[in-house]
Amino acid sequence: MQTLVQALRAGKVHHAYRFEGPPGVGKGLAALALARALLCEQPTPLACEQCVACKRASTFGEEEPHLPAHSDLLIVERGLYRGVLQASETSGISIEQIRRIVLSRVGFPPHEGRAVVCIIRGADELTVSAANALLKTLEEPPGRTFFLLLTSRPSRLLDTIRSRTLPVRFGPLPEKVVAQLLLARGLEAKLAPLAQGSMEQAMAVADAEALAERDAFANHVLAGIDAPDLAGALHFAEKQKLERGELLGLLEHLAQVLSLRVRDVVAAAPDEARKLARRYQLVRAALSDLERNVGPQLALEAMMAKLRRV
């Protein structure tokens, strides 16, 4: 945040930023705050939050696709314009969305503000054709045009996209901050250790039913890997018919359960802590496999077999 504030104060805001970091750590909020500062009628150089431009940039439509009221603030996201675009966008942000929402607009001066700001959520989901369509504009944008690309998986962006954007890295939120945010929402602060520094994760585990489901999965995995033979572990893995996104959430929770157990025993039982830490690393490796498009079933079965050898 200090990097962005200094850029605003120096009047040297880069034309294309890449906000990268885990989900739920404030990348989207930071992008909207920067957009308001760039659109504000009376910047200090931060947004005044009182002018018409600031208020319009903070107001989103109640009906889908929930677009900002400010016409110079563009939002791009996979599936956001479902029903408006012909492309289904099941596999990524389409070239049609880039052409119709971005390229058709950025060639013109701002309609009502000081700039045109385009926020691309989940930028790693840009299809190759969409990314290539965006390249020239990212390299040589029209004056007073800014791009903010948000991603939790920067390695999946094309190298050419990364080379044309300036990285701003966001880390996990401190546990105390997550606890404060949970309390502010009337939720239990004791859930903060399970959140892995992500408010998105914190809100997920705050759902009692979802937390029970994740705990059950973690308990089944741990019981399976400690069972007398491999058959039980494989039988459990075979029964799981999970979508990639669903398994990612469950494995993230399992990793955090192992991490907390390490923290609990490291002083009294260092050997047990090392074993748990190794298992944590294997779960993180399975998450990386899923990110690289390894099939969910295969990733889960391979992880279970490796965990048993620790």
Structure description:
There is one protein chain. The protein is of the alpha/beta class and 310 residues long. The protein has 2 domains: 2-169, P-loop containing nucleotide triphosphate hydrolases (Rossmann fold), CATH 3.40.50.300; 207-308. It has helices spanning 2-10, 27-39, 52-57, 95-106, 128-139, 159-163, 175-184, 199-206, 208-225, 230-239, 244-265, 270-291, 296-308, and strands at residues 16-20, 73-76, 116-120, 145-151, 166-169. Strands 2-3-4-1-5 form a 5-stranded parallel sheet, sandwiched between helices. Helix 5 links the parallel strand 3 (116-120) and strand 4 (145-151). Helix 9 runs antiparallel to helix 10, helix 9 (208-225) packs across helix 11 and helix 10 (230-239) runs antiparallel to helix 13. The model has no long low-confidence stretch (mean pLDDT 93).
CATH top level label of the largest domain: Alpha Beta
How do the helices and strands follow one another from N- to C-terminus?
HEHHEHEHEHEHHHHHHH
In angstroms, what separates the terminal alpha carbons? 41 Å
Beta-strand residue fraction: 5-15%
Major sheet description: 5 strands, parallel
CATH fold category name of the largest domain: Rossmann fold
How many distinct beta strands?
A: 5
Helix content: 40-55%
- The CATH superfamily of the largest domain appears as P-loop containing nucleotide triphosphate hydrolases
What is the typical, i.e. mean, pLDDT?
93
> Number of folding domains?
2
The CATH architecture of the largest domain comes to 3-Layer(aba) Sandwich
C-alpha geometry: elongated
The radius of gyration is: 22 Å
How do the strands of the widest beta sheet line up side by side?
A: 2-3-4-1-5
